[in-house]
Specification:
The chain is mainly beta and 449 residues long. It is 2% helix and 43% strand.
């Protein structure tokens, strides 16, 4: 990971080359196409592959997604319409060269994105709503939108720019990225063009919005940005890792609250710039995220930019943590037990940061975990204790890179409460110290392999 800094200021537009005549251009008159009031989520794409860009919008007045197919100029001259609509405000003429198609949804839609999500070369639709958090609607060969795929294991956010479709990992297949109140979800296509379960990256703060997919680090890989608030507003950056997946949150606090942020088009090799809309004044503010040239210091100490690893939603039971070299590479890895979901999250250390976390099933209601060198192996083993299941188990990271389901250990008497690995005799191997309770009496058990 690299340190980045936030710079607010003016970003000058590039001028024409010295000595070259300035290019001249002008706008033609407007083409009018009337829409309803509750329009949102404008998308531009060539839906029917005729070489002309079409439009798609959400029309919540009619609970529809409307696709506006562009006709060529010759077709527009021959069959275009110019008519009066007396029940609407000015302008009274509608003369744009678009054919309108309505796709009935049946309920209000929050956001919409367009892209090929099954690899057939045709655009599909992905949209969010309160009734169904995420729906994929596929376009068939005839241009119909009958096949759907729904995901309902999260709560959708009620505003725009929460859904994006793009090839973010360079595999020539589009990914679907959705941000919700608890996490980022990245849906990838398999070899058959099917969307499986998403990779989930939890987020911090409240009410994240303004999802962006941009290559901030100039490494050829798209990174993820979004605005979040935990007191003050911040722009959160999550770098795409070379090994795949996305890293921790890096926050860049805004001096003033913003309504939205957009990336500006690049001119040649210039750095990526952003434009923010000030929430109070409506004015535009320009800034860049730049790699720090030197490590800043405060009172002689390095002012390191925090790397925030959101793990999971807060539950009734607290999480348990264990440090240890689980893959035998000499670096300490992090293992986290999520008692609410009967799973272990593994963060393998790589250089100065952690890889994308992996999730493995385990006991439910995990109350304590520890890692230690119990065997003649460079890899440390993991001991998992569940107060709910009243059991203790041992596991390790296998050759396939997975933590196997714990093998039950018959140690101690009564209900296990807490465990810890410690090398009491300094022989290079750890012992397991177990505290348990039986009929109101506490006991401590020392166990060796």
């Amino acid at each position: 990971m690299r340190s980045w800094c936030y710079g607010m200021g003016a970003v000058a537009a590039s001028s024409s080359l010295a000595g070259a005549p300035a290019a001249s251009f002008s706008f033609s008159g407007p083409e009018v196409l009337k829409l309803d009031w509750a329009i949102r989520a404008l998308n531009v794409s060539d839906f029917n592959n005729d070489g002309l860009n079409d439009l798609a919008v959400v029309n919540n007045d009619r609970s529809q997604i409307e696709i506006l197919y562009q006709r060529g100029e010759a077709a527009a001259t021959a069959v275009g319409k110019t008519h009066f609509n007396r029940n609407r405000w000015e302008p009274e003429l509608e003369d744009a060269r678009f054919e309108r198609e309505g796709i009935t949804i049946g309920f209000p839609v929050f956001d919409l994105s367009v892209g090929d999500l099954n690899g057939d070369g045709r655009d599909d639709l992905a949209y969010t709503a309160r009734e169904v958090p995420l729906t994929i609607r596929y376009q068939d060969e005839s241009g119909h939108w009958t096949e759907t795929h729904e995901f309902d294991d999260f709560e959708a956010l009620g505003w725009n720019h929460t859904v994006k479709i793009a090839d973010i990992d360079g595999d020539d297949r589009a990914e679907l990225v959705v941000i919700s109140g608890d996490a980022l979800r990245v849906f990838q296509q398999d070899a058959d063009g099917q969307l499986g379960d998403p990779e989930r990256y939890y987020v911090t703060g409240n009410n994240p919005f303004n999802l962006l997919l941009e290559d901030v680090t100039d490494d050829g890989r798209a990174d993820i940005l979004y605005i979040t608030a935990n007191g003050d507003q911040s722009l959160a950056l999550r770098e795409q890792l070379a090994a795949g997946g996305f890293g921790p949150e890096r926050r860049f606090a805004f001096e003033r609250p913003v309504r939205s942020v957009r990336a500006l088009p690049r001119n040649g090799d210039e750095a990526l710039s952003f434009c923010a809309v000030n929430s109070r004044s409506g004015g535009l503010e320009f800034f860049r995220l730049q790699q720090a040239s030197a490590e800043p210091t405060v009172a002689g100490f390095a002012a390191v930019q925090p790397e925030i690893y959101p793990i999971f939603n807060k539950g009734r039971s607290s999480a348990s943590y264990a440090w240890g070299d689980l893959d035998g590479d000499g670096l300490e890895d992090l293992l986290v037990a999520n008692p609410s979901s009967a799973e272990l999250l593994l963060f393998l250390k790589e250089g100065s940061h952690f890889r994308t976390p992996q999730t493995f099933p385990s006991f439910s209601a995990i109350s304590s975990i520890t890692s230690g060198h119990f065997f003649d192996d460079e890899r440390e083993s993991v001991v998992v204790m569940s107060a709910g299941e009243k059991t203790v188990g041992v596991s390790h990271l296998n050759q396939e890179g997975r933590i196997a389901f714990p093998r039950q250990l018959m140690v101690g008497e009564g209900d296990p409460l807490v465990c810890q690995a410690v090398d009491l005799d300094a022989d290079g191997y750890d012992e397991l110290v177990l505290v348990s309770e039986a009929k109101g009496k506490m006991s401590l058990t020392l166990a060796r392999p």
